[in-house]
Amino acid sequence: LDWPKAEHSTSKMLQPQDRYFDWMDYSVFGAMLIFSALIGVYFAFFAKNKQVSSSEYLMGGRTMGIFPISMSLIASYISGISLLGIPAEMYVYGTQYWLIVASDCMVSLTMAFVYLPVFFKLKITSSYEYLNMRFNKAVCILGSGIFVLKMMLYIPMVIYVPALAFNQVTGVNLHLITPLVCVVCIFYTTVGGLKAVVWTDTLQTILMLAGVVVVLVMGTVRVGGPAVVWERNDFSGRLEFLNLDFDVTTRHTVWNIVIGNYFYWLAACSVNQAMVQRCLAMPTIRQANYTVLILAVGIMALVSMCCYTGLVLFAYFHTCDPISTKMISKSDQLLPYFVMEIAGSVPGFPGVFMSGVFSAALSTMSTGLNSMCGVIFTDFVRPCLREPVSELRSSWIMKGIVLTIGVLCVAMVFFVEKLGAIIQAGKSLAGITTGTLLGMFSLGMFFPWANAEGALVGSVVSLALLAWLSVGTQTAVARGQITFPQKPIFTYGCPEEVLNRTLTFVHAAPNAGEPLAVFRLSYMWYTLVGTSTTILVGMAVSWWTGFTDPATVHRDLLTPVIHRFLPPTPTPAPTTQNNAEMELKKIHKS
């Protein structure tokens, strides 16, 4: 290939043992942890409104502003896995994945006008309280349990991946850095509540943006400019945006990226406790809608920067792939290795980069701990208390919950480390759970005829189907029965000593046979499959057991977009479980 010329040369490559973290880098990284902890101390001991009530601790008194909540939502969506994984996706598979930004605006509009008005009218703490009000306690417990299980398995992965990157660029033992950063995160989340989480997220979002921007700017300059980046990726066939293949087994196409990601992100935003809790922490729905719009713009910008960074990675390593030459072991290590190559000698820069990566991880962890605390206390602990407890005691119980689940998540990081296959299985966990959860809420909000039996059976069937589909697919991938075509990589420009010492030939393992055709379904369709299954089975079971009379369902439990199509509500409204729940809640609020 006649590659575009630039000054960059791969005549010298970092060796795996090379480390470039110095006192300046450690100072930058340490400052990030210290400032995060100080924010927690401020809101716990010095802020005007102390964290002595459940409303203050979980909802920030419902007085939070647009800017910090927007930053917190962005930080929660972009994890350390995303910062390292999206550039690797571009490097290995090309740019088709970039089109996920196309569905972001549609999701923000759907969330603002369809789902958020329902939660805002109810003024609930846990989004799964809705399932209890619309259906019954069993459906609520199922939804809450799915969410807690997903987060307990997801948070350890979120911490483990950047900890590996930190180990790669510093040599610091994984067993040392993981507890250190997690203790800081658990501390400020426990003592500071939602306000501490939101404002540390704001700080960490700024650090994350700084790290990404500096890397892509320095990388672009190093390879010779944006034109060189674009041309080298074009020559290698990585620039692919309009794959219109209708085959549902193709890994990424326009259809599954735009449509499939729409449902995935809709589930991740519109009914996810972490997102809903932050929106409900604002005083008005108008402010919450502005926040959702800012979230969409922020995600589009951050994802686009991460995607472009992946193009910069290939433009830099276009003639000497570090994975083939065994300089790194897998694609997730590409970005840290690249940073060490281009800026390892710049004082403080590696520290800024790792602070950004860990900031993304810590924001996801703190958000997860805080949102799980709200769900566990509201849906599991409070109903078991024999008598009402004071607000002060409630806040101490919630702090104990955060501390307990935080310690469990840290312990599970080492479990993930020992069982590497858990990581691969965990990546499909979101697809298993998000589709079912979106289906449960959509069934309740869009279909007033649905009953509790339908919601329960539909959710269980959806979970079972997606678990079978995901486990079967991951097993087939591990056996080599399913492979995905990758973009070409090259090593002809590597230094001779690197080729002689590290380059080996890998022989493909014999195919173990053809998997079931359904296991070839692209993972991008999982959320849509789960949502559709929950709704279809739920409505079928509701018909079999007897539809609910729409007139008996409180209008506040249904999305406003269907109100015009509903029959008038009798006056007074019939006494049903969900109507009784609504009246009790109104009395309690007043």
Automatic annotation (TrEMBL):
The chain crosses the membrane at residues 26-45, 66-86, 98-118, 139-162, 174-194, 206-230, 290-317, 338-362, 396-416, 428-449, 455-477, 523-544. One of its GO terms (molecular function) is symporter activity. GO terms for biological process: sodium ion transport. One of its GO terms (cellular component) is plasma membrane. It is found in: Cell membrane. Keywords: Cell membrane, Ion transport, Membrane, Sodium, Sodium transport, Transmembrane, Transmembrane helix, Transport. It is a multi-pass membrane protein. CDD domains: SLC5sbd_NIS-SMVT. Its main location: membrane. PROSITE patterns: NA_SOLUT_SYMP_3. Pfam families: SSF. PANTHER family: SODIUM-COUPLED MONOCARBOXYLATE TRANSPORTER (PTHR42985), SODIUM-DEPENDENT MULTIVITAMIN TRANSPORTER-LIKE PROTEIN (PTHR42985:SF21). Belongs to the sodium:solute symporter (SSF) (TC 2.A.21) family. NCBIfam families: sss. This is Sodium-coupled monocarboxylate transporter 1. It comes from Graphocephala atropunctata.
